[in-house]
Design goal:
The protein is an all-alpha fold. Helices cover about 40% and strands about 0% of the residues.
Length: about 120
């Protein structure tokens, strides 16, 4: 009997990509909290890298990248937003902001010479 027919050939070993590593300048607790929501748990390594790239660009531009990540983790947002451009949540009842705190108040003041109030 031919013993070579019964012997199993070793399967090709697949090369696996290294696990995604969070850079040391990112708060790991905030990162993990942000990724704890169901949709973020399914994020691919490429999507995680894109988030890191966005945070790094903000960091180089002087934007508080740590606050952006912390805000996203606390609020349960799927995306990342600059701290000054975060989605409005917890707005005052009635859904309107006072005129002097409107996001375009500065532009209006310049256009209307301070009459915007």
């Amino acid at each position: 009997m031919n013993h070579q027919l019964n012997r199993k050939e070793p399967k090709d070993k697949r090369v696996t990509a290294p696990a995604f590593v969070v850079p040391d300048w990112i708060n790991r607790t905030h990162w993990d909290a942000w990724h704890s929501c169901a949709k973020r748990k399914k994020a691919t390594d490429a999507q995680k890298q894109m988030a890191v790239d966005k945070l790094d660009a903000w960091r180089r531009d002087g934007v508080d990248h740590a606050a952006a990540l912390e805000n996203a983790a606390i609020a349960g947002w799927q995306g990342l937003f600059k701290p000054d451009m975060a989605p409005e949540s917890g707005r005052r009842s009635g859904g309107r902001q006072p005129a002097n705190s409107h996001k375009h108040a500065g532009a209006a003041a310049a256009i209307f010479d301070g009459v915007w109030e």
